Amino acid sequence: MTHSQPVAPLLENYTAVAAALPGTLNPRIATMRAVAASTYRVQGLPHAKVEAWKYTRLKDLETVGFRRADAGAVLPREIAGAGVEGPVLRIVLVDGRFIAPLSNVFDIPGVSLRSLRVCLDAGDDAVIQALDRDVDFSGAPMAALATAYLDDGAVLRVDAGVAVAPVVEVVAVSTAATQPRIAFPRLLVTVGAGAALTLVETFRGPADDVYAVNAVTDISLGENASLSHYVLQAQGAAATHVSVGRCDMAAGVHYEGFALQLGGKTARHEMRLRMLGVGGCARLNGAYGVRDAAVCDTTTVIEHIAPETTTDQVFKGILDDHGRGIFQGKVHVFRDAQRIVGNQLHKGLLLSRNAEVDCKPELLIYANDVKCSHGATVGEMDPDQLFFLRSRGIDEATARALLMRAFLGEAFDTIQHPAVRVAFHARAETWLSRREGEKA
Amino acid sequence: MNNGIIIKDLRISVEDKEILQGISLVVEPGKVHAIMGPNGSGKSTLAHVISGRPGYTVTGGSVTFNGVNVLELEPEERAALGLFLAFQYPVEIPGVTNTIFLKTAFNAQRKARGEKEMDPMAFLKLLREKAKLLQLPDEMLKRPLNVGFSGGEKKRNEMLQMAVLAPKLAILDETDSGLDIDALRIVAEGVNAQRAPDRSFLVITHYQRLLDYIVPDVVHVLAGGRIVETGGPDLARQLEKTGYADYTGNAA
Question: Which residues in chain A touch residue B85, judged by CB atoms under 8 angstroms apart?
Fold first, then answer.
């Protein structure tokens, strides 16, 4: 039977496509792709038996027959990002392609922005090294698939000691097409020792088209570097979205992350942090809203490899209609990672009896002097709070809206960057008001 | 019609258990009535039923307020008519500041009554004035509703809401519980400052202490779901000496 095994979806024309990818003649790049492709071929699309994908099936990827996207044409309004006010430097990826004319010029000393394709064509050692680090594809077929198609994207580098004042915003936009297409936006970010960066990633696309995105962001933080990393997933209602952010953290690093997911038919955002150096500290928060029959998966994987590292996670979701939310939080404390702190909390607010939350904390602790906690609450709106507001004259619909905002608002309060906090809050507000508009 | 609240033979059940077994009571505008009684006598049930909390079944009787049958109204509609409940256990709502909450409530009531919303600056001014009278610092107005407030602060915050919303009938559900003597005095002064010819109060309490500060016109004793005695302020003082033993015995 091995001869007639079906080709894994999305890999049908792989040999021909791969031959035309940049840097094919570079053995390291070619090997990286080949290993990734064969890993994906063996694993296939994620399914329930893969623990890391227990609750989320990418059904459309199995059936629709997506083609790899070429860069389409975009309108200026389509490359709008998260709406962050103030100084912003924008990087635009259209269908996974870095588009220099739409991106800002980064003329800040110590900061460089390049096209990944150019780097691959030139055989840039540092870039190849960064892409080829010990990435583990086990249970990560989608990341393998993205690397199999490694092609274009943005490479951002901040030199040691440089504090980048403007917000750097990456807008990954998918364009409308007659056939369903999949894009592979790729971002490589290196923040040198003692440097500081605020990074906002926005994913968006046509409101109602069927399309797919499989994005990978690799981040490396040098000693005592500081990164604020915000992700807005605002895909269209028929989109399949998969993104993974992988962040390696040296000693003394400060990482603050917030992921807001509001779009997609099936969406999954995953953050993987490797705490490699003593004293690294990460706060990883997020919020999501899911309605209709959409599925929204937030997965985090934290590896406390070095001692005295700290992670705090709070995620909140609002679920309406037949929406389904998934939160998987894995914390892996290595044997020598003593005196670490790892806290994790997920709170779900169900607005409908048909909504569902699947929550899976996973703690693997091999050190003996650690403080770890996890918690999950899922519930309907508190009837006591509702009655209290109504007894003061606030009608039921307004009271519910107020409580929903309060529930999410707490999450946004954790965002350290004021302009990003305002922008993300506004996005959530738009999402909430759509509900009221429909049901009023 | 402005004739206060008229409760006639009110019967209330919760899960087939009759909690109020025929309460009749009239509180005229400008009057302060106190309802005293032992634990479990139905005092809080009465407060909640008048305010419209879900979960109670009306099996008989009526409650009209200024001529309107309030039992058929939603809680927010009752509030717009001028009914106010000061909660025994005020609810904490993280993420909603005191100011936003009060502004929303204030304007919602005005809107429901067909009045214009108040200009935000004018509202803030009103809010600060009332807060000052209750010795609530401005900072507490910016904090999330009741979150991190002490017991006394929560009760003072209830009095602030009452002062801002200016109801026609305020029901104080054991507002004195958990208060020290200073907080009790502040709360009582807040109530006394609100006394007016067109505003009545229903003060529910277990102890006579609060009634030293808020002197009632009429005192009712509620026991076993019935009003078993009605009298003047002296009745409260007498109860302080004798306790509720006489009534619980009778009502059982």
Answer: 391
The Cα B98–Cα A145 span in angstroms is 51
Q: Report CA-CA distances (Å) from B219 to A196, B45, B216, B236.
A: 69, 18, 7, 7
Please judge whether B91 and A385 are an interchain contact, meaning their C-beta atoms are less than 8 angstroms apart: yes
**What is d(CA B155, CA B76) in angstroms, rounded to the nearest whole number?**
21
Instruction: Please tell me the distance from the alpha carbon of residue A402 to that of residue A423, in angstroms, as a whole number.
Output: 19
Is residue B205 within 8 Å of residue B216, measured between CB atoms? no
ipTM: 0.95
In a 10 Å sphere around its CB, with 0-12 CB exposed, 13-18 middle and 19+ buried, how is residue B18 labelled? middle
Tell which of B81, B101, B118, B161 to mutate to test the A interface (max A CBs under 10 Å). B101
Residue to mutate among A388, A408, A429, with most B CBs inside 10 A, is A388
Q: Determine how β-strand A88-94 pairs with β-strand A167-173.
A: parallel
CA of A245: how far to CAs of A52, A151, A284, A288, in Å? 15, 17, 12, 17
* Average pLDDT per block of 10 residues along chain A, 440 residues long: 64 91 95 95 92 94 90 83 94 96 93 97 95 83 96 98 97 93 97 98 96 97 98 97 97 98 98 97 97 97 98 96 97 96 96 95 96 94 96 94 89 94 94 70
Alpha-carbon distance of B244 to A214, in angstroms, equals 72
* Residues in chain A within 8 Å Cβ distance of B106: 393
For the entire predicted model, the pTM comes to 0.85
How far is Cα B251 from Cα B245, in angstroms, rounded to an integer? Answer: 10
Closest CA to A180 of A75, A85, A72: A72
